[in-house]
Design brief:
It is found in: Membrane. This protein is mostly helical. Among the domains are: 42 residues; 220 residues, MFS general substrate transporter like domains (Growth Hormone, Chain: A). The chain has 15 helices and four strands. The protein has a two-stranded antiparallel sheet with strand order 1-2. It has a two-stranded antiparallel ribbon with strand order 3-4. A hairpin with a 2-residue loop joins β3 and β4. It is globular.
């Protein structure tokens, strides 16, 4: 499963590399409208291809849980907690247990236990919000830095989006290496590095990337200004070469190569098969929420600073303070994740808990054990009585 996820993200980023190298250059140097026409035609061809093979892609999902059932367990638990004094059920270990049928709820024990496993992943998803806000600095803060730097490489004008290739290189290079290391560890019967350790390292790389971005901004402002033509307009930019910003792109790309596949792996292995799709949907939702969080942080900083952090002339702004602030909160986020990472060390905990946490199953096992015990005692007593008679 880990190898498959790594290959999937490798192919996705390989496609992104082609897009940034090709379409970005066409849009900036050849024709601006053509840069929009190519993605539009690509999407249309993709939709036509999916429509042609839709019968082969359609399958019957596994029964047992759905998004509506999951939301229903939450709502029913809240309702039962609010109306607890009207029911005869006693105290429960978790507030979600109120939704069980034996506690007056409307859902089976299996459904509730599956949702409890999903809730256990919410801290993991919540701590990805700030990390994803750091990732959004590539098309926002890092983009502004690159746009206000010298884009000329000898006589060639680099597209601004070409700097994104630097952030994609770590995954293109590390994915085959990580797959090789994982295969070697499994063949030698050794455990590879756990996903939570990989995520912690990725979060640390993201915090370090934003810190380096702040230091690079201080260094960039020390260079004299020069005129540079961008999209038909002449603007004042720093004479520092944009390639000097490569370390922060590399660190953020390394973080993405480590975090995203590991989060998907944890979500897949720690959830039962019936709700794996829902768990991955919540993970994707946390990524989207992180993008919104990054946009909100930038907007709040812009409003509170009166536009001082993002002025028209970046040389007069204080973008480095924003990067230092983001590096500080991301460091705290990394320490919090490291503190709770023990919950996700064993990838078999979630499924074993679902299988063995059912009270009904535990009672049946106890009854089975008791029957075996009494059967053994009865046989022993019969044998002893016969020996005595003889």
């Amino acid at each position: 499963m880990k190898v498959t996820l790594t290959r999937f993200y490798w192919l996705v980023n390989l496609n992104s590399t082609v897009v940034f190298l090709g379409i970005a250059y066409i849009q900036q140097s050849v024709a601006n409208n053509l840069g929009f026409l190519i993605p539009f035609m690509s999407v249309m061809l993709m939709l036509i291809a999916i429509h042609m093979v839709r019968n082969k892609l359609t399958f019957r999902p596994k029964k047992g849980s759905s998004l509506l059932t999951t939301l229903g367990v939450f709502l029913n638990s809240v309702k039962m907690c609010c109306l607890h004094y009207r029911h005869l059920s006693g105290d429960v270990a978790s507030w979600l247990d109120r939704a069980k049928e034996n506690n007056g709820g409307h859902y089976s024990e299996t459904h509730v236990e599956n949702v409890k496993v999903l809730v256990g992943l919410f801290p993991l998803y919540g701590l990805q919000l700030l990390y994803r806000a750091c990732i959004t600095q590539i098309p926002s803060g890092y983009y502004i830095q690159t746009m206000n730097s010298n884009l000329h490489l000898n006589s060639f004008l680099l597209p601004i989006a070409a700097m994104n290739i630097i952030s994609i290189l770590p995954l293109l290079l590390l994915a085959p290496l990580m797959e090789c290391v994982t295969t070697c560890c499994l063949s030698m019967e050794k455990s590879p590095l756990s996903p939570v350790r990989v995520i912690t390292l990725g979060h640390a790389c993201a915090a370090l990337s934003v810190l380096v971005a702040g230091l690079s901004e201080v260094h960039r402002k020390g260079f004299p200004l020069k005129e540079q033509a961008l999209s038909g307009k002449v603007v004042q930019v720093s004479s520092m070469a944009c390639l000097q910003l490569a370390p922060q792109y590399l660190l953020l790309g390394l973080a993405e190569a480590l975090v995203t596949p590991a989060c998907s792996l944890i979500s897949f292995h720690l959830t039962p098969s019936h709700i794996r799709g829902i768990a991955l949907h919540f993970l994707t939702l946390s990524y989207g929420g992180g993008c919104f969080l990054g946009a909100i942080i930038i907007q709040l900083v812009y409003l509170f600073s009166g536009g001082n952090f993002y002025p028209n002339t970046l040389h007069e702004g204080n973008l480095e303070r924003f990067f230092f602030f983001l590096a500080t909160v991301m460091t705290i986020n990394t320490l919090v994740f490291w503190r709770i990472s023990y919950r996700y060390l064993d990838l078999s905990v979630g499924q074993s808990r679902v299988v063995g946490s059912s009270h009904l199953a535990e009672k049946l096992l106890q009854y089975k054990t008791c029957l075996r015990f009494y059967d053994t005692m009865e046989s022993s007593y019969t044998t002893t009585s016969l020996d005595t008679i003889l």
